[in-house]
Amino acid sequence: MPASKEEKLRWLEAEAEDCKLCRLNEGRGNVVFGVGPANAKIMLLAEAPGRMEDKTGVPFAGAAGKFLNKLLLEAGLKREETYITNVVMSRPPNNRKPLPDEIGFCRPFLKGKISIIKPELVVSLGATASEELLGRRVVLGSEHGTLQDCEYAGVKFKLFVSYHPAAALYGGQTRLKLQEDFKKLGKLAEKI
Ligand code: URA
Prior knowledge:
By secondary structure, this protein is an alpha/beta fold. It has a single domain (5-190), classed as Uracil-DNA glycosylase-like domain (Uracil-DNA Glycosylase, subunit E), CATH 3.40.470. The chain is built from seven helices and five strands, in the order αβααβαβααββα. It has a five-stranded mixed β-sheet with strand order 2-1-3-5-4. Strand 4 (147-152) and strand 5 (155-162) form a beta hairpin. Helix 1 (5-17) packs antiparallel against helix 4 (100-117) and helix 3 (63-75) crosses helix 7 (173-190). The chain is globular. The protein starts with a helix and ends with a helix. The protein binds uracil (URA). Residues 46-50, 53, 59-60, 64, 86, 166 line the site of uracil.
C-alpha cells in the first residue's frame, strides 16, 4: 500500500528533527516542523519560529499567534483546518531574519511539505515567505491582498500575499491592512 500523506509528513518531520546542516541547530529548543492536517486545502507560511515556538515546537504559539487566531476567526477560517509552517524550522538567534544559506538548507523540507500536502491556496505572511514562494523580490506595500498563480516544488496553487502578523502587533496601518486582507481571504476561501 502506498504511504499516506500523514506518514510521508511524519517521515519528513523525523528527518528535520535530526537536521544539523546549519548553525540554527546549535541553540534551538525544538524544530518547529509545522502543524495541521496533511490534506489541508489552505497552508499558511511565515518566516521562522520565535521564542514561544522554539519552546513548544508549535508554530504561532506566542503573541503573533494570538493575533493570527483572531484574524482567522474574523475571516471565518478554522486554524485547525489549515496547515501552518515557516520557511525555516529553527529559531534564528534574537529573532533575526533567517540568512539565505539557512533558508536554503530548509528549502527541501518546505518543498517536501508542499509536494505532500498539495495545498490549493497558500497564504504567505510577510516578505520572507512571499519571496521564497515567488522566487523574486516582493514589496508588500504594493502586493499585499493580491491573489497570484504560483508554482513551487512542482505544485501549482493560488498564492495570497499578506503581511506578517508580528508586524501588526502594535497597531497602526499594517494591522488594518492585515485585517482587510484576511476579510478578503475569507471570501476567497469560500470558493475552494
Ligand atoms: N513568527 C513566525 O514567522 N512564525 C511563527 O511560527 C511565529 C512567529
